[in-house]
Amino acid sequence: MSDSTPNRENEMLVPLHRRNYVLGIINGIIVQVGNRLADPMTVLPLLLIRLSGVTWIVGLLQAIIILAPAAPAIFASRFLDTAERKLPIFNLYSVIRFSALMGMAIAVLAGGYLSGVLVAALLLFFFASWFTAQAVSTMAFMDIVAKSTPTTKRGSFWMWRQIIGLFLVLTVAVPVIHYMLGDNSPAQFPVNYGVLMLAAALTLGTSWLVYSQVKEPLSKPARHQLTVRQNLVRGLRFWRDDPRFRRMMRVYLLLAAAGAIGPFFMALAVQEWDFPDTVAATFVTVQVLAQMAGSILQGRVSDRLGNRRVFITAAFTGLLTALVATLAALYAPVGGIQVFGYPVSYRLMILCICFAGGGVYTAHVWPGFVNYLMDIAPQQKRPSYLGFANLFVVPVAIMPVIFGWLAQTVSFQIVFAIAALLAGVAVILSLRINEPRDDLTAEQLQRLS
Which partner from 84, 94, 111, 359 sits 20 to 30 angstroms from 428, CA to CA? Predict the structure, then answer.
């Protein structure tokens, strides 16, 4: 046990701020709806494929998701560590995020006057701007959550954000996606996608406005702001000197690489198996239902047993999903069966299993990662811990690009097989990480329950 462990225990034992807890849940509910309207796993990959006609661009989209947070890890974490209040930083970068989302919407809405390649390029540029700003605001957001919510309530915090939000996704977002992308859509391509982007921007903007009303607890900021070089050296020391951080990051790196196959389920459906665009609504529905079930499991496991077990569940789910996808790409039969009088193809059912696995995986991997990180990171260094965690994931950004190239030049089955191998190693390593909550006494845990 390190010398800093007692401080970390005290930081896990923060009192619950109910106002912030509730506003954080409301924020998350609205975020779920907004994110699905511009879903990077279904809607955006489908739009980019239609605009450009190439599969590898899907991998580029996933690479941006991993690469965009890297710069803030080095630059923004320096002033976040020393900032007494993180909420003004969250608000500023939320405005930047909203502007980037509006840029995406305008670019797509203007698609009738621009070439498809140019619209795709603009879309990726504004998407990268969105995710870069999101990295900074997320570091501020996580610090406020960690100061407002004890470790035994963080699982339920993410659970309620996901469950209620995903219910609204099913009842609001999915019907809107199906209507806008269907045969009866009031707008032609790509304006129908532009309307979805605009709705996503307005919805997410509302969610950030809600969270701006929290009452931020007092911080224990770092005393001195480091130079960029000093900050980078310190970040490298996190990996060298903190074994819990290092072991957790190894698992997260593998899970991030394996999880990059998500958008390729949609690419397989429309490019290899000739499914129509409207199938996106079906897959989103399946993924959302699975994520709701996974969120309930995640919340109960995290609050009662700790976040190590959440990581283990994510790794096993990622492995099983990749194995099913590999077998589907190799052997999926043509034909189908009647379900309640409607023909349902075998391939549709198999893809639904893959999207369901992706939903359970998503419900576990992000909450498990951030909750574990909040448990082990000292408060004065918490933004840097999160920022450098994003930086260390940067090498994984090559995987979606490789997956996209392999899918287009070799086969989808090789992509899914590689992901299964990565997830299998993650399973082994996840069993070797420890549980930070084990450092707390039974009396301390009882007081938080």
Answer: 359
